[in-house]
Amino acid sequence: MENRKFEDLPFELHFQIFEALDVKDILNLGSSSKTFHKECTDRRVWNNLLKRDFGIGPVEHPRKRYKTYFTYSDVYCKHDLTALNKGGKLYVRGQGNSINYQQWRHVDFGIGRIEQVMCSSQFLGVTKGSSLYITLNKEGFALKCDLEGWKMVPQCIFHVSMSEPITKISCGTSYASFISGKNVYIIHQRILLSPSSDGHIPEKSLEVLKFASTPIDISCGEKHISIITAEGRLYVWNSHGRPSSRSLKSKPLQVSCGNDSTVIVTGDGLYVSGQVLEIEALRSKPLFMTTPRKIYTLQQRPFQVSLGGCHIAVIAEDGLYVWGFNFCNQLGYPGPNGTPYPTRLEISGRPLKVSCGSVHNAVITEEGLYMWGDPFGVTPQLQKLYPFFGHKNG
Question: Is the alpha carbon torsion for 30, 36, 38, 43 positive or negative?
């Protein structure tokens, strides 16, 4: 029987083996020979890795996209805070209760590589698999140093573990929420004021919203939580009772909440509901809408939306658009004059994820992370933050 080298096996068999390897092993294998270098740089391999590790794809430049997602995999803005997942570590910048970081600070929950991040003036949280770790900002942070450098460690860490993976998280001022399986779980702030001695939050202490159809996204406002489900419905929860329900004309893809409003990305455009400031007309008179109304001013197909205090940012098929009020330069240019019409921002690299705080924004692109607006003293230009979180700040 002829002995065949591993290198001589057909690409299809190598491809199946690559599916079981992590990225470092694939990169090391690619540097071992010309044959493996060619195979390990194949677009099919990297599109498969994108799908496996981040649930996206296929894309035109999958290896470059993977590198960006591996470096900056999540960003979350709320109020005056920004939380960033960089390389599986949590970094925080801004102001919120006891937090006042004008430069990026590494916050360590002591659980290794993290996945999703969330923040608000009251909460800071991360996920890992089927567990959520959360702290109250007012409890404070301890400054510690180890071989990796200086880090901030929460004084009190609370955690809840579920039987199914936690797919989405969000938080507001007085509660946090997450999706696990077909249920939405709500953590009220009062629960964290009297936890068990080991910080474990029992599942029975959580408020549970059960759905017949799987929830696909969730977002917290100041006094409400909006949920969209796979069957094409929008549910809005508040502290007064059961969530109200509205049917959407097109399949919902993503949802974002402002203070008292909700914006939904669907297959045929953007829809807005709730008590909203008429951003399109730049009026300050609130308008209450129980039925989602389509936003016709955006002509391009939207992929992701984020709602700030009085402005909105949308990633569309041809770039990043912002509109609304501009009293803190949150639209990316100087001056108090806002605009009721979507304005495209020129930014280096295709935008991948955007998040809005009260008057600031953060966007991950293929080239890195950009932020603009107050309260960081950022000039009214798009500023790139270089991937170095030491004594300097890009």
Answer: negative
Helices (H), the chain: 11-18, 23-30, 34-40, 43-54, 62-71, 189-192
Long-range contacts of residues 41-50, Cβ cutoff 8 Å, at least 24 apart: 42/11, 44/15, 45/15, 45/18, 48/15, 48/18, 48/19, 49/23
Q: Put the strands of the sheet holding 225-229 in their side by side order.
A: 215-220, 225-229, 233-238, 241-247
For the stretch 268-326, pLDDT in tens is: 999 988 765 445 444 444 445 567 888 878 888 999 999 998 899 999 999 999 998 88
Give the C-alpha separation, 90 to 200, whole Å. 21
Contacts of residue 392, Cβ cutoff 8 Å, sequence gap at least 6: none
In angstroms, the CA 340 to CA 312 distance is 10
pTM: 0.81
The rounded radius of gyration (Å) of the Cα atoms in the chain is: 22
Cα–Cα distance measured from residue 253 to residue 251, given in angstroms and rounded to the nearest whole number: 7
Half-sphere exposure of 33 (CA within 13 A, CB side): 7
Q: Are 263 and 305 in contact (CB under 8 A)?
A: yes
The rounded mean pLDDT for the chain is 83
Give the pLDDT confidence score for residue 196 in this predicted structure. 61
Rounded to 10 deg, the angle between the 43-54 and 62-71 helix axes is 30
Rounded to whole angstroms, the Cα distance separating 193 from 291 reads 37
